[in-house]
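Researcher: Structure for this, please.
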Amino acid sequence: GHLTVAYVDFALSGLLPETLQRFRQSNPHVEIELARFPTDIQKEVLQSGGADIGFLLGRCPGIGMQSLLVE
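Model: Predicted structure, token format:
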């Protein structure tokens, strides 16, 4: 399988590294592609299906979108 993960720079010092490590351990057969986008562009990429999951600032309302962690 394949998973495209969009992120903003802040995610590198937050949940992203640990989350990816856990996912890779549980799903070694899945190829992970990382794509860095600013928050406003990332929202568009997520809504258009250009990424499967995103680590961004703020909420991303939309069809099929769900915030998993909001601080």
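Researcher: Any notable elements?
Model: The chain has a mean pLDDT of 87. Residues 4 and 33 are 5 Å apart (CA to CA).
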